[in-house]
Amino acid sequence: MQHRIIVLGAGYAGAIAAGRLAKRLRREDVAITLVNAEPDFVERVRMHQLATGQDLRPRPFSAMFAGTGVELRIARVTAVDVARRTVTLQDGELEYDTLVYALGSGWNAHGVPGTAEHADEIASRPGALRLRERLARLGAGQPVVVVGGGLTGIEAATEIAEARPDLDVALVAHDRLGDWLSDKGRAHLRKVTDRLRITVHEHTTVSAVEADAVVTAGGQVVPAAVTVWTAGFAVHPIAQATALEVTDTGRIVVDGTMRSVSHPEVYAVGDAAFALGAGGKPLRMSCASGTPMAWQAADAIAARLTGGKLPDTPLRYFNQCISLGRKEGLIQYVTADDQAVSAVLTGRFAAVYKELICKGAAWGVANPMLGLPTRRRPVTAERATGVPA
Length: 389
Known about the structure:
Helices cover 27% and strands 25% of the residues. The chain has helices spanning 12-24, 47-51, 61-64, 115-118, 125-137, 151-163, 183-195, 287-306, 347-366, and strands at residues 3-8, 30-36, 71-74, 77-81, 86-89, 92-95, 98-101, 105-107, 119-120, 143-147, 168-172, 199-201, 206-210, 213-216, 221-223, 226-229, 233-235, 252-253, 266-268, 273-274, 319-323, 329-334, 340-346. It holds the Pfam family Pyr_redox_2.
């Protein structure tokens, strides 16, 4: 009997995990099913580019997983029952022996009045396409406000300002602009936002979003023909509705192998997982976290099924890559636990570096073993069913 592995979600983490498992395990021993709501891969790190009118290369899963043995199921997940080990889809139900949960995250309105009704998001392709249409209809001089001073907000604001220099772009940051960066990183970021004529509202909290403005906690009304909301992400709510141990924000608590601490047949990767990295600090929601988490989970599942050695690669960071339009970038080098150091790379070289990182991330989805030879190992009979120790 084949060991049934279901991977929910085909973002960076889920797609890499599915592909890596297919190259680790023999096809006759396992049945790997990848469930995703859309038929092609979404380069989420490029949604700000899509929103400003740039066209992205299509990456259909049917081509990416052709010949791998991974079965694609294009469907939306509606529930997971960890007691029965079943996944409910809009069009049926699947049973699993091992589940890899990678449903990711979406935008988080934080309950701010008017946000859901009036703001646009770029955490998804549909959201980025809606924003694209709205920006295209704006005339010269119209105000655009990006709420959120994190990586997504900075990339969105600079991309819009560069692509549409005729618009009046503003960025609202809860803290100081780039407060997590080094002095050199903040200085370069300020230089670029000034050059692009982006108005930056620092130490500002948005208390409401209206059809034509955002209102700050201090009572200031900032005009906005379009408001782009990038102030944080929220994980898919399905995990919180299960018996899995989750955090108060709904992320699945996992051990160092990305295995659920409450249900050993479940693994979680990407934004959906709460995992600890260097120094015992939680990994942040990012592609930089999701990719090594996927490697770790896939290798751990394969090891437990085949009696191999469990992976013990520490999960750490090296840098933060920020695009500042198509011509500028900022690479902030960091410690293993993601703290900024003084070293940065800026300018055109940084933009090229970031582009290579984005291309490499997409390439890694289609090539989950990073060019290493395929080494499919047999699943031992006693581990084919049930939960491997």
